[in-house]
Amino acid sequence: MNLTVGEKLSIAGKSISELSQNVIGWRYRCKSNKRLDGQLVVITGANTGIGKETARDLAKRGAKIIIGCRDESKANEAINDIKHKIPLADIIAMKLDLSSLKSIRKFAETLANNYHSIDILINNAGVGMQEHKLTDDGFEMTFGTNHLGHFLLTLLLLPLLQKAPKARVVNVSSYLYTVGTINFDDINGFNNQYNGSYAYCDSKLANNLFTWELAKRLGPDSTVTTYAVHPGSVRTEIHRNRTSNIQRKLIGLFGLIFFISAKSGAQTSIYCAVDERLDNETGGYYELVFFFNI
């Protein structure tokens, strides 16, 4: 992947601007007081980071939360932590490995057998691999998990989403989608030297393309609306598979200074999940911004 000088400068400028805003700490907060009593919310990867904070907020609003996670023990730890502060939180965990098509189908089937409709689906889970690895189904791991897994999950859950009076699909993307240049002739990275960072950018571009195309195909009169979000540069565990111990420590130190908290990063997902001003919007891309720009 070869970027032009202009593209590199644009990305660098945006990164510097965002990190400087993070240091100041003036960030937008979702101010909607919308209640979600009686509504069902499904969130992937909500055992930590942005997903966990999103689940915590929506649980406060009265929603029933189902978090789909590969590690059920970590998911239950997150649930216990949420319930410690929100004793009445209605939240459960279900096994979901987004790198396995079999697991995704089983998860969707269980939901279809137990629930009549889904009001909000938040495709939050994500990985970033340093080494070239494949899913059980033969897809490159980052693209297979971040995009293909959520792509299949959303399509399988679409009938349940369409049964809700109004439903929303929120895809957690990244402004790094601007670097993505998906090679459809070598989508699994066999023919070119693998680069984990570029694979991640490609997966985020795919998230956005899926958001836009799903909105287009559902049409303007659909009861299901879609949103892609960039949460900001957030202190999460996304780098756990992409770096050495020394690199993780350096990223951690850098993150303490320049990255925002998971709670702040979750605000864009929460905004797109509940804010009433988005009722008639679909297929858009939303970023966490400096507060006085709102």
Q: Explain this structure to me?
A:
- The protein is an alpha/beta fold.
- Helices cover 45% and strands 13% of the residues.
- A seven-stranded parallel beta sheet has the order 3-2-1-4-5-6-7, sandwiched between helices.
- Helix 4 (101-114) runs parallel beside helix 5 (141-162) and helix 5 packs parallel to helix 6.
- The chain is globular and about 50 Å long.
Q: Helix count, per DSSP?
A: 9
As a whole number of angstroms, the C-alpha radius of gyration is 18 Å
| Stretches with pLDDT under 50, minimum 5 residues | 7-12, 18-24, 250-257, 290-294
> How do the strands line up in the largest sheet?
3-2-1-4-5-6-7
Q: How does the helix and strand content classify structurally? A: alpha/beta
Number of strands: 7
Q: What distance separates the N and C termini?
A: 35 Å
Largest sheet: 7 strands, parallel
Shape label: globular
Labels describing this entry:
single chain; 294 residues; alpha/beta; globular; disordered C terminus
Summarize the structure.
This protein is of the alpha/beta class and 294 residues long.
Task: Lay out the secondary structure.
Elements lengths: L4 H20 L15 E5 L4 H12 L3 E6 L2 H14 L4 E6 L5 H14 L5 E4 L17 H22 L4 E6 L23 H23 L5 E7 L14 H14 L3 H4 L1 H8 L9 E4 L7
Helix pairs in contact: 4-5, 5-6
